[in-house]
Model the fold of this input.
Amino acid sequence: MSEEFESLALEGEALRSESAQVPRTQDDPKGRVCTWEENGYTVHRTNARTGPGCHDNCGVLLYVKDGVLEKIEGDPENPFNQGRLCPRCLAVKEMLYHEDRLKYPMKRPKEDRGKNTFQRCTWDEAYDIIEREMRAVIDRYGEEAIWVTQGTGRDINGYGPLMAQYFGTPNYGTGFLSGIACYGPRIFSTALKSGGLFVCDYSQFFPDRYDDPRWEASEYILIWGNNPVVANSDGMLGHWIVESMKRGSKLIVMDPTLTWLAGKADVWFQLRPGTDAALALALCNQIIADDLYDHEFVSCWCYGFEEFSEHVKDYPVSFAAETCGVPESLIVEAARKIGSAKSACLQWGVAMDHTSEGFITGMACFDLMALTGNFENPGGMLLSEPCFGMSVTSSPRGDTWDECTPPIPHPELKNHGGYKPLEAMNAISPDALLESMETGEPYKIRAMWIQTNNPIACMGAQPQRILPALQAMDFNVVVDLFLTPTALACADVLLPAACFAERIGITGHQPYALGAISQAIEPLGECKSDQRIIYEMGSRFVTDEYKHWDDEEGLYDYLLRDTGFTYESLKERTWAYPEFEYYKYKKGLLRPDGTPGFATSTGRYNFYCPEMAYFGFSPFATYEEPPESPVSSPDLAKDYPLVLTTGARAWGFFHSEHRQSPSMRRLHPDPTFLVHPETAAANGIADGDWCVLENNLGSAKLRAHTTVRIRKGTVSADHAWWFPERGPEDGTLFGVLESNINQLIPMRPGKTGMGASYKSQLCRISKVEE
Ligand SMILES: Nc1nc2c(c(=O)[nH]1)N[C@H]1C(S)=C(S)[C@@H](COP(=O)(O)OP(=O)(O)OC[C@H]3O[C@@H](n4cnc5c(=O)[nH]c(N)nc54)[C@H](O)[C@@H]3O)O[C@H]1N2
Ligand SMILES: Nc1nc2c(c(=O)[nH]1)N[C@H]1C(S)=C(S)[C@@H](COP(=O)(O)OP(=O)(O)OC[C@H]3O[C@@H](n4cnc5c(=O)[nH]c(N)nc54)[C@H](O)[C@@H]3O)O[C@H]1N2
Ligand code: SF4
Ligand SMILES: [Mo]
Done:
């Protein structure tokens, strides 16, 4: 062991022996106050969170007068967002105080599903009905007949599993998200390669941000299937990229659409949707051919490089150029830029998961990062871990809730659809669960608990299958902010959830800091936080020995019990940044046994992935055509010649949310699709025309937006449309199946059980004749 190594190992040893009871923080909270009076307002310094929906926890100042939230501002002192807010928080009052907000628990006779005959009831009555109905399902069919669902990572991540445990069901997960195709495929597959979740370094681990002397801006940021200035996805903010660019970062963008950031890139790959893995493997091939890979990193810290360098010879630049529809010279240029850069990082997006073999796309892109040694270096990929060991909010930790409920009676009945990777990940298969609702195989789902989830409008593929399946259930509960199409279609009991300004909580989805959400106003009507609904409802299903708290603050104190914070102490400082180290793999800070290396089965970064071999797949990342594409299904492509990608995020909407918010709706009044003017003209379509998009599965009606920003022959369609302005009476479930692009997307995962076709389908377009 070299001297450098020895001293790094000692440093790691010292860091590991720190006591968790005295949280070591980087930021100094002296002088920071969480509430004050100003010009007749009481100001609350807090962290935003869903609802309404978002992945983030931007620092906000809430100005309250006479119990009413009058205005919201970004907190300039919060290191996370440094005072900036996106349109949805600036307009949060329009959602918070909207007249359509659910304010009271409601019940409805089962035979009235789809009709607006809800009646207000008390919380006790609602809980009584749920207890009675869920117990009846459990007694007759077993706990596994209940499916507890959530939507994307709102402030339900981590808490949802508790609801499932209270019922005793092993079936918990995203509601009808085909192939769990949001984050799951990428983070699980790359964890097999790298032993953790790694994210780009934008200085977000430092409370003094870009000024921290340890930080260096990444030389190249690869923005891959992601539009971060709009989406601010998964705990990162798009303006961090702009700030990095001001300090020297350059961009390489992979996107079929010219996004704002693509317009500022050194290299922009306008690739055919669904072909990303081919490009990643060809870039690897070229970097090896040019001998631009990081020899030290590859030989000291990686497993299977020699075989990998042979494997990628199957993916020459010419193959990727042809497959992706991009110039060969551009691939060579990008490979040289990435290979010669001091640092590079992968800003990946959900487009990676939204192809059938999305599980493997993430792996191929990670290989590029390993090849160039961009792990744990300034400006590279950094481990993203739960702060202060507090993982419940960022990702569910298996044992967080273990002492809160009796053990799940039949864990082996979890429906992972027979997919080995899902079994290994201890995850359900939403695709298999929908099938079992339809066929009763291997057993039938009879009851649903749907929380932060609007599957008919948004999350589910093939809503035309989901709607009848939900309406055939024995019993359904929906917990939401609004009467959604899903709630109107199927809820027997509908429970009103509180917005973030109306409740307390702790932050999640960001591994850099831990913070508190403090309550600024009383909840509207009788709304309650999701967390409170879960433990109040759940406590009906457990004995006193499993009740560890009496109120919400007690819940958070319980969760924080090993961090050295209480809810109150966290609230007072509003945020806390744990200490941070680069090069953790050299210091023994990644592996549980404290030895240097990565926390993988081999101790190294796995170019050769033994787990993939065990699952029966290629141990190396490979490229496969999407099942529906001009290359893999030319016959289908004769009828449906255009490539369809869907769901590119819009500023003002979070999925199916915000259609009720007047200012957000003004930004985007109608369902639209982007189409190149030449493709539009060839199909007799002009800008603004209402059109039908259709394929062998279904159709949807959207308006054409012609633009040269989109790849020719590709159509990029909005997702998640419904029309709350129509009201619940006209029998159309707010028109949810009229402009619903998911009718064209199959509920069918890739071969690993993960990955889906939301961004790689085929369709044709035609003008709607008036
Ligand atoms: N065609 C297509 N479909 C897609 C996608 C795509 O790109 N294309 N993207 C997919 C992806 S990545 C995802 S993650 C899913 C998202 O799917 P979902 O997360 O299911 O999103 P929504 O349909 O908006 O449903 C969320 C519901 O939660 C409610 N809500 C918001 N905040 C709260 C809260 O604090 N408490 C409670 N109880 N309810 C709340 C909202 O009112 C809304 O009704 O959609 C998927 N669907
Ligand atoms: N405002 C807003 N923000 C959101 C959400 C929202 O609904 N609204 N949803 C949240 C959720 S759950 C998620 S998962 C994230 C997702 O956020 P992003 O990862 O940014 O996802 P998208 O906007 O769906 O797609 C990003 C880009 O991928 C491009 N693209 C489409 N198909 C392909 C392809 O096959 N390959 C490549 N390389 N690019 C492709 C699109 O043109 C688009 O510019 O956003 C989160 N943030
Ligand atoms: S990203 Fe936007 S909606 Fe989300 S917390 Fe930040 S400002 Fe609010
Ligand atoms: Mo997502």
Notes: Confidence is low (pLDDT under 50) at residues 16-20. The domain at 106-181+411-498+528-559 is CATH 3.40.50.740 (Rossmann fold).
